[in-house]
Design goal:
The chain is α+β, with helices and mostly antiparallel strands. It has 7 helices and 8 strands, in the order E-H-H-E-E-H-H-E-E-H-E-E-H-H-E. Helix content is about 30%, strand content about 35%.
Length: about 230
């Protein structure tokens, strides 16, 4: 199984076509035998986890049975042709699932795999379905956590993605699992938000997954977010 995340950035004049793509691209994805799971997603401003959307930046998260399935899509699909026609800037990371707990839209997109003996750079996806009644509490709590994330030891990069304001996800890359765990569990503010979310029942659905990064290519805002870092195993 291969998981891909492609971040797509349109020029400002093409924002209407970016919005149109969110509707148009659903049909070819539905008609394809592969991927087995996919989500067309919006992005937070400057890649941050916030209520301010970036109308230029979008994402496609997908799960493939094989690398060949991804390669065929990336080279020959209608969506790939769309991206080429509109001259979008795009960056893709390919990953292999290590662990996954929870559901996304009632599904387990990455299976129930649990690989514990991996030691290397790690990618983390956290996704939450926020209850409407808890919307305010959630968003008031995440701002301070986001600022701490950028300063955390071992943090490499992250993007905030989601289907709506209530269906939010964070995709982050870390140098190693120890630093990721230190931020997730030892950081007081982050740990407190997790405890409050569970105690006060903020979420109707949540998913937490870890991945081994396999390959990264392309750019966003002119750079490869993982450039110069010995993270990717090709």
């Amino acid at each position: 199984m291969i998981v891909s995340l492609t971040i797509i950035r349109y020029r400002k004049l093409l924002i209407p076509f970016a919005l149109l793509a969110m509707a148009v691209h659903r049909l070819p994805l539905l008609l394809q035998k592969s991927p087995t799971f996919w989500k067309l997603l919006g992005a937070g401003k400057n890649g941050s986890f916030s209520l301010k959307p970036d109308w230029q930046q979008w994402a496609l998260l997908a799960v493939w049975e094989s690398k060949a399935g991804f390669d065929e899509f990336y080279s020959h699909s209608f969506i790939a042709s769309w991206w080429k026609f509109f001259g979008v800037e795009k960056w893709t990371i390919l990953c292999e699932p290590l662990q996954s707990h929870g559901k996304w839209g009632g599904k387990e997109p990455f299976g129930s795999v649990t690989i514990k003996d991996y030691n290397g750079p790690i990618v983390v996806l956290t996704r939450a379905n926020i209850k409407y009644s808890k919307f305010k509490q959630f968003w008031l709590s995440v701002g301070g956590v986001t600022n701490k994330l950028y300063q955390a030891k071992g943090y490499v990069m992250s993007v905030a993605i989601g289907e709506t304001y209530c269906l939010a996800a964070t995709f982050s890359v870390w140098e190693n699992i120890e630093d990721m765990k230190a931020f997730s569990y030892a950081n007081g503010e982050h740990a407190d938000v997790i405890k409050r979310a569970r105690k006060e029942n903020w979420l109707s659905e949540e998913l937490f997954a870890r991945f081994k990064p396999m390959e990264s290519f392309g750019t966003i805002n002119g750079i490869d977010p993982l450039s110069g870092l010995n993270l990717i195993i090709k």
